[in-house]
Structure prediction request, 1064 residues.
Amino acid sequence: MSLSNTDVRKVARLARLAMNETEIETARAQLSGIFNLIAEMQAVDTTGIEPMSHAQDVSQRLREDKVTETNQREAFQAIAPQTEAGLYLVPQVIE
Amino acid sequence: MQWEIVIGLEVHTQLSTSSKIFSGASTAFGAEPNTQADAVSLALPGVLPVLNRGAVERAIKFGLAVGAHIAPRSVFARKNYFYPDLPKGYQISQFDLPVVGQGALAIQVEPLSGTGQSYEKVVRITRAHLEEDAGKSLHEDFHGMTGIDLNRAGTPLLEIVSEPDMRSAAEAVAYAKALHTLVRWIGISDGNMQEGSFRCDVNVSVRKLGEPLGTRREIKNLNSFKFMQQAIDYEVQWQIGTIENGGKIQQATILFNPDTGETRAMRSKEDAHDYRYFPDPDLLPLDISNDWIEQVRTTLPELPQTKQTRYVNEFGLSAYDASILAASRAMADFFETALAAVPNETKMCANWIMGEVSAQLNRDGLDMTQCPISAQQLGGILQRIVGNTLSNSGAKEVFRTMWAEGGEADAIIEAKGLKQVSDTGAIEALVDEIIAANADKVAEYRSGKDKLFGFFVGLAMKASKGKANPAQLNDILKRKLGQ
Amino acid sequence: MINTSIKQLSAALAAKKISSAELTQLYLDRIARLNPELNAYITLDEEKSLAQARAADERLANGDATGLTGIPIAQKDIFCAKGWLTTCGSKMLHNFVSPYDAHVIAQFNNAGAVTLGKTNMDEFAMGSSNETSHYGAVKNPWDTARVPGGSSGGSAAAVAARLCAAATGTDTGGSIRQPAALCGISGLKPTYGVVSRYGMIAFASSLDQAGPMARSAEDLALLLNVMAGFDERDSTSLQREKEDYARDLNKPLNGLRIGLPKEFFAEGMGSDVAQAVEAAIAEYKKLGAVIVDISLPNTKLSVPVYYVLAPAEASSNLSRFDGVRYGYRAPEYGDLADMYEKSRAQGFGAEVKRRIMIGTYVLSHGYYDAYYLQAQKIRRLIAQDFTEAFKQCDVIMGPTSPSTAFKLGEKGDDPVQMYLSDIYTIAVNLAGLPGMSIPCGFGANNMPVGLQIIGNYFDEARMLNVAHQYQLATGHHDCAPQNIGL
Prediction:
């Protein structure tokens, strides 16, 4: 299977990865190789097979509805790129 | 040309748990920014979600209340997109297998404008699923930047999706209101719309009667019924106008501006939506046993519809009265508790609550949950009316005093000397005195001047300082004057 | 003193032959000498380590020591450790000082172990050679021109060069077993769900599992006793009774049924590797084991399945690295989208970006059924292969890696070749089974060869027994590289 540069550009955009044209071309070539490897899978007949999402067949454990966490804003924001007045700052969000 | 409006709703209702859906951080409203953003809410590297039992229980309760199938196994999925208020870069939601399946809600539609009959309609609910809320973006100016508060991130939501069954803004509003009543009624949400606990996305399309569905546009995040009506009205006109002018409707996500009353397409969602849903590998399938469902069922209160019907059939109330008294859990509880004091006086009890109590609440700007007098206190007044201890005017005075100062009916009656005289001997003595003192008028009356009867009633009432039981007084006066 | 088992170190500490502070200092000195060449550690913090060592000495003096109290352990830099720089091998987390402890770290802290430092690794655990680390490649102590394997290459090299008593690793597709094999040490990936993933930076959540890396199976058992256990903060952590993984170490192997999958001994395996593995099998026969020929027919599909599922999960797991709340943010950017795209493009290395791209693509609209869903279905077929196989045998054996350690840069340009080298390890993760690698001799260029032992679910104690008996009978695990100053 071969991908186009447009495919790669679209995926890079979805994944929020800036890429210049050279990088897109390299990525296209490498991804095409990887998808050729992946393509082996397509020939397998999986009719009636249940998809397997988890290694163990167990069900979700539930937490009691209790507040267990305390305010750690200072510690958490000490490692943040940019904060002010307790808020994380990002370039303006336009709705 | 006949246009048909087609509306479906997606309602995000915040569930009233103490902690978040996947962590032990508090969900209390109004905290300082990011003080309730724990490691999980912040999506620190390495943290993992664990599901809150309280959130699941509330979803089950909702499902039972709308007669829906509760999925024995449901699955959490990741909805992937980048947004600064979404710390993980994905929202944990349910996609293929939601916890609540198909249900229905009966609504009473009151025409919003003009005349027309109110009517009942059943709106089908497609599904309801659990998911986490995002944080908040604060657009005040931080040097041209946006501030992010993640206190709300991870708050449990139940997203309730309806079928496109509504055909007017009035129906959409009636459905939203009925749902709003229901979620508070069964205690799964505080329904506080100002705080964003009940947010509606409205899908609107128009078509010519008999034609296939038109392209819909989704009005996001409406948090008032008034805005919902305005937004739908504007949007419908806009869509019809666009089509009639030869335009085509493009699928879009739009916002309503309450200041201008207009809708506009959102700018930030320029990406073609490709959410890349897949089952969240950090969470296992949610299994809900029949035992659990049955246990939740026992906690379900009598629902508004059932109550209304019972009020009509059992108490002989009108449909209108029943709908008002069953409009909220607080109202219905108040009514039923007060009624317990005077079990045979449903009409009087209903009238007092819809009359005096509601009017006073209105004047004071309070809702039923904030009512300064309890249903038991009101029951005390009603009992005294029934027992002939209070006249109607006396009862109103007791009520006013109780509202302002508190206290029990009997104590107020005693303190204010409002006890009605129902002692036949005392009233007879009083009437005898009046007859004796007004021999001339008695003669006139007996000679045929019937109108004077009122004059004697007035004198007698005055003499009793208003406390004489009016019916008794009438009887005795008639008898004595007639002799 | 350095070249000895944890059991002996612990005995020396208990007998006051050496203090933990002294032992820790010994290791720190060795690290200072050898790490500049090997690059096994990303972060060291002598003060922190020594403070922990002194606290351990107090515990030892007070008589409330455990078998690991005072033992210097190297932690893979994928585990969040409070107050420690935790980079996950990435520039993205070059400044991330963790505000909390992973479950694994807390377990070691509670046991009184000493954290010697954070070990180098492939970026976000994506790699089989340790060359994708932002902090430079790790060198194999047996030959510094060669890779140590990956992604837990720093831990493997540190154990092999005796730069720690033991180490932790994580294994998503072989990341404990393959570097253990290439560095001539022992490593165990437990059954999925046995060790909590809380605080372990996620690569592919449904496959990731932490485990111990050490010089012997006996040491592995001691470490696993500390690492394993239920943790309510991880929904996939299994609620099981606490077990002693060392309990069966000394059982004889008479009658042990060893399954040899024919697919593991087909094309692709180096002849030097084949020789060493066959010799190990012969040794097991001497120990009383019987050989059963089995088949794992879908083995070959495990590579494509893995390279759909793991990148899919990773692409989503790595979305949180957006330059907003922690980690790298590009110094210059325009609008919000630009900030995201530049921060991520600059913060992630090439292999990580490649896998994010694969994952994003296979999950995107119109491809989900053909890739992701199909891969999940074949994943079940692969798991069923093992279920069938374990009806006929007690453990499965084969090579860990098709070749011994390759040269640095040798497979740099060809991701597909690199991915194919995971062929023997990946299926174990897809099935969620426990797997381990122990040294079984040497191949070409005198580089170590690993023997892989795969057990049934929760059969770690038996696997450790099987490994330990071999290590009692042979000396491969005691071999150490030259030039490490022993």
